[in-house]
Amino acid sequence: MSYEEERERMVINLRRRGHIKSKEVVEAMKAIPRHLFVPEAARPSAYHDTPLPIGEGQTISAPHMVGIMLEKLDLSRGQNVFEVGGGSGYHAALVAHIIGENGRVISMERIESLAERAREAIKRCGLEGRVVVIVGDGSLGWEQLAPYDRIFITCASPEIPPPLVDQLEEGGKLLIPLGSRYLQTLVQVEKKGKKLKRKSYGGCVFVPLVGEYGFS
Ligand code: SAM
């Protein structure tokens, strides 16, 4: 089976299991080639619904988790989005596809070699300039291009980093796996004045956030 056929089948299965529903998310997952975001050795498994190693002890998340997060992010065209934990760049590329040419994703990754590979894959998808990969501690955010309409964190966090709340636009949404190093709950917060409206979406497991507001 070709990568395209495998990807089509992955999307059919994610829809059937109810992980993805909206036209925008379905089209993005059909369009972005996950195999370009994983190392050569992992390519035969690129369209299996499982996390895969991407080097440096890190992983690309399972497609169902990426799909769930894309749905909960409730993205619109033209938004300014910040990601903490760029990893392979796959999740950022999907977001860029959904928010369109007038949108922008700032993806922060703490490991330089992963950031470099993510930039290459993003370029191969024709999304250069629409996803900017920056090396640094994403728990501090990136003030230069704030405020953000959406912020998503793709690593396990012990708390919601306060700089990320400060850098979220009024009415904006932030998605974060909150909990311990080994088990978290996917939480969405919406900024309403000085209040944060919180919703929980069930259990998940991510690699830990390492940084000022992460695990030591
Ligand atoms: N979203 C990624 C993708 O599409 O491949 C998967 C991310 S992986 C589950 C989590 C990533 O978070 C790792 O690459 C790790 O190096 C990164 N990370 C951990 N702490 C970080 C921090 N403080 N700032 C930025 N990146 C961080």
Comma- or semicolon-separated keywords:
single chain, 216 residues, alpha/beta, Rossmann fold, seven-stranded mixed β-sheet, two-stranded antiparallel ribbon, 28% strand, globular, binds S-adenosylmethionine
Strand order of the largest sheet: 5-4-3-6-7-8-9
**Ligand names:** S-adenosylmethionine
Largest sheet data:
7 strands, mixed
Proportion in β-strands? 25-35%
CATH architecture: 3-Layer(aba) Sandwich
Q: What would the average pLDDT be, to the nearest integer?
A: 97
How would you describe what is shown here?
This protein has 216 residues and is α/β, with parallel strands linked by helices. The protein contains six helices and nine strands; from the N terminus they run H-H-E-E-H-E-H-E-H-E-E-H-E-E-E. Helix 4 links the parallel strand 3 and strand 4. The longest helix is centred in the N-terminal third of the chain and has 14 residues. The radius of gyration is 16 Å and the shape is globular. Bound molecules: S-adenosylmethionine (SAM). S-adenosylmethionine (SAM) binds next to strand 2, helix 4 and strand 4.
